[in-house]
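ugh finaly. both done.
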Amino acid sequence: MIRDIKGTLVVVGVAVIAILGSVSVPIGQHARGEIPLNKAKATTGRLADQAALKPLGLFVGSWRGAGQIERGRTKGAWTESAAWAWALTRDSAALQVKVARGKFLKSGLLTRGSTPGSVTFEATLADGSSRRFTGNLADVGDSKPLVLIASAKTPSGGLRKITITPRHESRLIMLYEAEVDEGERVFLSRLGEVGFTREGISFAAGDSYPVCIVTEGRGTTQVTYKGKTYWVCCSGCKDLFNENPDAVLADAAAREKEKKK
């Protein structure tokens, strides 16, 4: 398969209502973009990073994957698993992924880029080497891919492009492509594709789910503070909440106040 090396970056928008407890939000609503994304006033720091990366928050969770070199053919097939989580500090926010038995990718850190709408993916490949990929949050829509291109020229046959396509709330496709240099022409060739299915409870469009008090993502784990229970979406959010629950609750209250204006 031959593909043009240039790609655009489009992601599924994730927008949910912030909570101060365990209010539920219909999945279909935010998937269709009917709830606007929270516009943080800060231009730097953790809250600004979270706001920029929020459309990619649906990646968060544990996924089991089935890989194929050629779609529909079992020859050379393999299995792997991936875990996406927020990596949060008081001053920054990023999305990290760890892949077990990955054929192409071992881990990676997805951060806000240096220019508005851009993202950077610092990847550790399966062979242990490092490679930087970049993309742009150019558009938002259902089932549209996040396209990441290696920042520097790669050796012929080396991984050049990663395309991450969310099919729905519980399905994610990752396509890996190599750059092939034949002298007179340079093109992209398919290396393989992994279809991921979210582990745990599946939510269909229209269903409701608890909302993370930190990032407004899908709440999966409960935390308590001063006798009240809240939801978080991953270990990164849980750690941040436990480190400074008053600050997290203050941020959530500020979001609520901003939405009521």
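ok and the 2nd:
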Amino acid sequence: MLMDNPFKQSSNSRIPSEFVTDRDMLLFLLEEITRNLRRSFDARFEYAGLNRTQWRLLAYLLKDDGMTQTELSRCLEIERATVGQTVDKLEQQGLVERRASDRDRRVWHVHTLPKAQALVPELRVHADMIYDTMLGGIDTDQLSIARGILEQMARNVARLGGE
């Protein structure tokens, strides 16, 4: 069920009621979901001193340990400076470390440390609890259809480039 339209036409509006469409409302809903998901992750991971961005960074490193900050920046779709600050915080917590590249002294690779690897199973439980709540009442077939739709939307948006 879509959220109520917060842009209902007031009686003294000069803007046509078609200004905010059902497609607008669908995209507003997607944004609301991601915003609430970020808040849920931040609240759930607060005990570990982590936020959603830090969790995502760790997840990428666990899949491909030793990524560069530039690679992480591309994956997370955030600025390299923000990745640097995130890595700084994770380093201070003893979860990751930077190691100089053997090939290029300007490049640093980020590696997880045993403390992060030990924390992951616990974080996984909390992430799954969030996902279970978010996806409650949705069967496997519906999720498969939704994933296909979202993947197509992502491809379509990627084609827009920097418009």
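summary for the 2nd one i guess: The helical segments are 22-45, 52-63, 69-76, 80-92, 114-134, 140-160.
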